[in-house]
Specification:
With 117 residues, the protein is mainly α. The protein contains 5 helices and 2 strands; from the N terminus they run H-H-H-H-H-E-E.
């Protein structure tokens, strides 16, 4: 692979992109440059960011409800659930910390830390 292919493309956020997807692009550009570059080269970068943002909403209610069942109050459960889904899809760990991510059945990159305890 040539050096030009390895070069990180500039951060580009379309004007009408939803805030969560834009946040994903910014985070991936800074913390997962190889993934960002690969998705960019495949022409899938914006679709991946949008899918990651949509996945956070899909999981949010489920996690929120699970936390309430565990005894959390609703507002605290919502804040915690939001943090969990953002770390799962948007604020992915650095490539140095977690070089390879899992993907969902629909191809969305996902971080699922191993549970301890």
């Amino acid at each position: 692979m040539s050096n030009q292919q390895d070069q990180l493309p500039p951060l580009e956020i379309p004007k009408r992109m939803l805030p969560g997807a834009a946040d994903a692009l910014r985070h991936w550009h800074e913390h997962r440059p190889k993934m960002y570059t690969q998705l960019y080269q495949q022409g899938k970068l914006f679709d991946a960011a949008i899918a990651a943002d949509e996945a956070t909403f899909e999981d949010l209610n489920s996690i929120h409800n699970d936390l309430i069942k565990q005894g959390w109050d609703s507002s605290t459960a919502f804040v915690e659930a939001r943090q969990i889904v953002r770390e799962r899809y948007i604020h992915l760990p650095t490539e140095e910390d977690v070089p390879e991510l899992a993907t969902t059945e629909s191809g969305i990159y996902i971080y699922q830390p191993e549970e301890t305890g």
